[in-house]
Task: structure prediction
Amino acid sequence: MAFVPLWFILIAVLWTGFFVLEGFDLGVGMLHGFVGKDEAERRAAMSTIGPLWDGNEVWLIVAVGATFAAFPDWYATMFSSFYLLVVIALVALILRGVSFEYREKRQSPRWRRTWTWLLAIASLLVPLVIGIWLGDLLAGVPIDASHTFTGNFGDLLQPYAIFTGVALAGLCLLHGGTFLALKTEGMVRLRSARLARLAAPVSVLLVLAFICWTHVIADRGALLNPVEFLVFIGALAAGLLAFDRHEGWAFTATTVVMGLAIVTIFVDLYPRVMVSSTNLAYSLTARGAAAPPYSLKVTTVAALVLLPFVLAYQAWTYYVFRRRISDRDFRPPPARPRSYTAVGAAAPGQGPAGSHRRGGRLARAWRTGRS
Amino acid sequence: MREDLARWQFAFTSVNHFLFVPVTIGLAFLTALLQTAWHRRGGSEYLRLTRFFGTLLVINVAIGVVTGLVQEFEFGMNWSAYSKLVGNIFGAPLAMEGLAAFFLESTFLGLWLFGWDKLSRRVHLATIWLVALGSVLSAAFIMAANSWMQHPVGYLMVHGKPQLTDIWALFTNPVFIWSYAKVVLAALVTGAAVMLAVSAWQLRRGGDRAVFTRSARLGLIVLVPAILLAMLVGDELGVIEARYQPMKIAAAEAQWKTCQPCAFSLIQIGGGNNDHAPTQILAIPHLLSLLATNHWNGKVVGMTPLQAQYAAKYGPGNYVPNVFVQYWGMRAMAYLAVIVFLVGVWGLWLSRRKKLGTARRFLWTAQWLVILPFLINTAGWLLTESGRQPWIVQGIMLTKHGLSPTVSTPMLWTSVIAFVLLYGTLGTVDLLLMLRYSRKELAPAPAQDAAGEPVPAMEY
Result:
C-alpha cells in the first residue's frame, strides 16, 4: 500500500508550498511599514503581493483539508490538541486577510496606520504560531494510548516548538526582504535589500541552530541526513547571497532554504505524524492515522490530476506580474493636463493603483476620477 | 454545556460565513455578466458598472474567505470524534474543494483585480468567469459533504466505522443534487438583490440614471426566475427530505400525529416540543401532503410515531429536533421568498413600461428588499441543520458523541468569545464599507474608450 507514504509526501509538499509562497507574503506583511516611509511606498510594497497572497494562502487551506481526508486521526488529534494555538493562528489569518482589502478602502491616515499595524503583527504571528504547531508535532505533546491529548496549553509552549516558530518567522522576514528587493524599485528596493542584509546573519544563525536542534529532537543518529545537510549549506549560501548584488540569487537562496527547512521537519517526522511525549509507543503514525485505501485512492487521483493545473496557473500568475513595482506608480501625476482638472483632484497617494506606466490617457482619467 | 457551546460556535461561524458566501457567488456571476456585456457591446456604461460592482464583490470576498478558513479547522478543534469517525468520507470532498475550487477562485481573483492593464481583454474576461466558476464549484463540494451528513450514501460499516466505498454516490446523492441547486439559486437571488438594492439607492439619490437603470434591470432579470426556481426546488427538496429525514419535515409542520391527507397551517399557536396539540389557524387542506409527498392525499408520519420508531431502532433517547425553529424557519423562508418574488415581478412590470428608473415607491421598496434574502438563507440553514438534530450524521452518529473529548468549557468559551468579537467587528466594518462604496458616485467615463487601450488595475 503505497498510498500512505505518497499522501505523507503530498502533505509535506502542501506545507512546503505554503511556507515558500506565503512565506514571502508574510515577510512583506511584516516589513511593508518599515521599507515604505510614506503611503505611496507602502502601497508599492503591498502591491508586490497584492495579486498573489490569496492564492498562496490556499496552500495552507488545502494542506489542512487534505490532512482531514487522508489522515483523519492526525487532523482530529492535531487541532483538538493545539486548540488555543489554532484560535490565535485563525485570528491572525483573519485579520491579515481582511487588512489587504480594507486598508485601501478609506483615505484617513489613522485608518491606514491601524491596518498597517494589524497586518504587520498578524503576519508575524502566523509563522510564529504555525511554527509552534509544527515543532510540537516533532517534539511531542502528551498523548495517551487512544490518541487523546492529555496535556494543557503550557505543554504546547515547549522550548523547541517556540524556537521553531521563531526560526520560521525569522526566515519569513528574510524571505520577504529578498522578495521585496527583487520586486520593487527606488527607495523601497534599497531599504528592503538593506533590511535583508541586516536580517541575513540572524536568520541564518536561527536556521542553523534550528537544524541542529531538530536533528537532536528527532534522535536520528549522529550524522545529519541529506536534507538537513542541504539546508545547512543553503542557509550559509543565503547568508552570503543576501550581500550579493544579484537580488534574484538572494531570493532563490531564501526560497530553497525555506522549502528545505519545512521538508526537514517532515523527513524527521516520518513515519510518525505526531509524537507522543507520554510514551513514544503512543505516537500517531502515518499508517495508523491514515484513511482506508479507497479514500486515499480517490483523493490521490484528485490531487494528481488537479495539482499540475494549479501549479501551471499559479506559475502563469507570477509571470503576468513579473514586473518590478515602483512607488512612482502610486503618486499623483506631477503635471496634470488642464482638461482633467474638472474631474476632481486626487489626494496624494490616491490613484487606482497597480502599475501602469503604459496606461496613458485612459489610465490618468481613471486615476483622477476615482475618489 | 460543552455540546451547547460547540454547537453555538459552529452555528454562529457558519451562519456568518453564509451571509457572505451567497453575495460572493451571486455578485461574481453578475459582475462577469456585466463585463461580458462590456466586452461584446463596448461603450463605457458596462465597464463602469463592472468596476463599481467588482469593488463591492472584492470587499465581500475578503471576509467570505477568512470566515471560511475558520470552518476548515473547526471540525478538528471542536468535533474531533466526528472527524476521526467520518473524515475518510467527509474530508474527501473538502480536500477536493481546496484543490479544485479555492485555488481557482483565489488565483484568478488576483489576476482579475490586478490584471486590467496586464492581460488582453479577452483573457481578462476569462479570469472573472473562472472566479465565478471557482465559487460555484466550491459550493458543490461543500454541499456534497453536507448532504452526506443529512443522508449518508456510498459507504459500508466496517468494525462499526463508516468507510467510503463509492465517491460518485456523494455527488449523485439526491439530497446533494437538490440542495446544491437550491444553494446556487439562493446565491443568485442574494447577489441580484444586492445589485438591485444598490442600483435603487443610486437611482433615488440622483445617481447616473441610464447606467443604474441597466444594473437594476439586470438584477431583476436574474432575481425573478431565480427566486421562482428556488421555491420550486425547495418544494422538491422537501419531498426528498421527507423521504430520508421524515423527522425534519414533520417538525417543520409541528405534525405530532400521522395525517393523511395533511393540511398546511399558515400560522399556528403552540405545537412546540412540550405541546402536542397546536391550534392551527388558517389551515389549507391537502397542501402539506402536496409539499411533502407530491401527492394530493400523501401521508406524513407524525413525530410521535417517528420518535417511537427511532427509539426502537437506535435505543432510548430524544430524536425530536427543536420544533419551534423548524416550524418558523420553514415559514420565514417560504413567506419572505413570496414577498421577494412579488416585488421582483412588480419591478419587471415597471421595467417593461420603462418606468423603472423613476418609480420612487418601488425603488424605496427594492432598497430595503435586500435584507430578505439574508433572512431567508439563515432560516433555510437553521431548518436544515437544526432539523438534523440530534444527529451529526443522520443515523450514524449523535451530535453529542462527535465532540472533542479533551476540549474544556473554558477553551470553548475562549474561542466563542474570540470569534464573536472578531466577527462582530469585521462584520460591522464590512457592512459600513459596503454601504460606503454602494453610495459612491460611479467613476466617470474614461476620456475615450479606445480599443486595445489598457484599463488600469483597481486595487491598492
The two ends of chain A are 61 Å apart (CA to CA). Chain A has 14 helices and two strands.
